[in-house]
Amino acid sequence: MSGPLPVSGVPELPLPPIEAVRTGRTANVPVLIGHTRDEVRGWALPFARATKEQYERAVRLEFGAEAEAVLAHYPFGAYGDSYTGAYAFGALCGDSSVFYGLGRLPVPGPHCPVRAAAWGSFVKHGNPAAPELAVWPSYRAGKFMSLLPGGESRALRTEEYEARRQCAFWDSVDYDWRPVDPDRLAAQAGVSQA
Q1: Domain boundaries, position 68
Q2: Cα–Cα distance, 78 to 58 (Å, whole number)
Q3: Does 82 score more than 70 pLDDT?
Q4: How much is the pLDDT for 56?
Q5: Residue 155 β-bridge partners
């Protein structure tokens, strides 16, 4: 799963989405963009056995001059359990969208019944609203939908979403958003895969 997603340069997606949006070369159609909070954890599994030192070494290798700031925002100790390294690296890569090589344009995917209902309604009607869902705000409303199990979904104010994902921090980071190969990076940091 390493490398930039989605794949572009094919007839179905000739440009990377961020380039198409930034240059105004998009179709005038409804667009639904989203992500899961922890979607990168599986990708970050090569870091599951990482020690604090190995995690910090990987961050320094990947983020260079920005590493100390990244470590201050994503300290190893904030993700305490047996998969600390995977949780920590998954969080920082997910929040930064480094996994996609897209900056702050996340990639959607239906992975739960609530999300599937929203996607189904969007495909059928051009709107993710459905009777069993919380009211889905327009992007122009300055809110983001947070899909949660058990009927707990709700719209988040832009500021709340940005604070959770540390967007101001990532907007300040001078980083080239290159594709990251987690297996290679974990090996360079000395993380055992055995």
Answers
A1: 17-188
A2: 17
A3: no
A4: 94
A5: 145
**What letter represents residue 20's amino acid?**
A
State how many domains the chain has.
1
Mean pLDDT to the nearest integer, 125-140: 75
Within-domain flag for 4: no
Task: Identify whether 8 is part of a domain.
Answer: no
| Banded model confidence at residue 5, pLDDT cuts 50, 70, 90 | low
Residue 113 lies in a domain: yes
Distance, CA of 97 to CA of 93 (rounded, Å): 6
Average model confidence (pLDDT) for the chain?
75
Dihedral (C-alpha) 189, 100, 108, 85: value to the nearest 10 degrees? 10
Token pair 């690296």 is found at 89
Picking from 177, 160, 179, 180, the residue whose alpha carbon sits closest to that of residue 168 is 160
Instruction: Confirm whether 7 is domain-assigned.
Output: no
pLDDT at 191: 92
Nearest Cα neighbor of 18 from 177, 164, 127 is: 177
Which residue carries 């009607």 as its tokens? 125
